[in-house]
Specification:
180 residues, binds flavin mononucleotide, alpha+beta, 34% helix, four-stranded antiparallel beta sheet
Length: 180
């Protein structure tokens, strides 16, 4: 798969096979995350990899029952909690860049997982304090997202995206890029 195939075919995966994930693949995925760009190259991200069933279950209560990905967290053999040390990033124009830093790394992780035949699903709908407590994550770290990781047991259709003309402009603000 080239990079455009990886980007184009990735989906949020919410059903997983009962097959373990090879440690070497997990390391490869974390390494891809580690290579992301970041504010002053401060690399504020931290990744907590969970395979122990008890630990994975301990944080489930932090997720509302109607979160569509909740079941996947119990089903997938691995869960990765993506955190950020806010002190290792900056604020400019009121934008807290720890979110951007960590989001880029998280997406590297998701794309690398897909390239290796694994599924992931960025999940951000949870009670952050409950995750910290359940997993012993120190207060100064923000929990930016959580993903299950494993071999997909579904092939979801692509979800719709806005047309390029709605989101990309050429020369003048509001002049659709594809209309020039
Ligand atoms: C910041 C963020 C938070 C998300 N939170 C959740 C979540 O809590 N639960 C869930 O099932 N999916 C969650 N998603 C996945 C989105 O629903 C999904 O990316 C979107 O519907 C597009 O589908 P696709 O990823 O298959 O292209 C989240 C995605 C992002 C980027």
């Amino acid at each position: 798969m080239d990079i455009f195939q990886v980007i184009g075919n990735r989906r949020s995966i919410r059903k997983y096979k009962d097959i373990p994930v090879e440690r070497q693949k997990i390391e490869q995925i974390l390494d891809a995350a580690r290579l992301a760009p970041s504010w002053k190259n401060q690399q504020c991200w931290r990744f907590l990899v969970l395979s122990d069933e008890g630990k994975r279950r301990a944080m489930l209560d932090a997720f509302p029952d109607d979160n569509p990905g909740k079941k996947a967290l119990a089903q997938a053999p691995v869960v990765i909690v993506v955190c950020a040390d806010q002190e290792e990033s900056g604020i400019e124009n009121g934008i807290e860049y720890y979110v951007a830093d960590t989001a880029i790394a998280f997406q590297h992780l998701c794309l690398a997982a897909h390239a290796l035949g694994l599924g992931s699903c960025w999940m951000g709908w949870y009670e952050e304090g409950a995750i910290r407590t359940a997993l012993g994550i120190p207060d100064r770290f923000r929990v930016v997202g959580v993903t299950p990781l494993g071999y997909p047991d579904q092939e979801p259709k692509a979800r719709p995206r806005k047309e390029l003309s709605e989101i990309a402009f050429f020369e003048d603000w509001g002049k659709p890029y594809d209309n020039c």
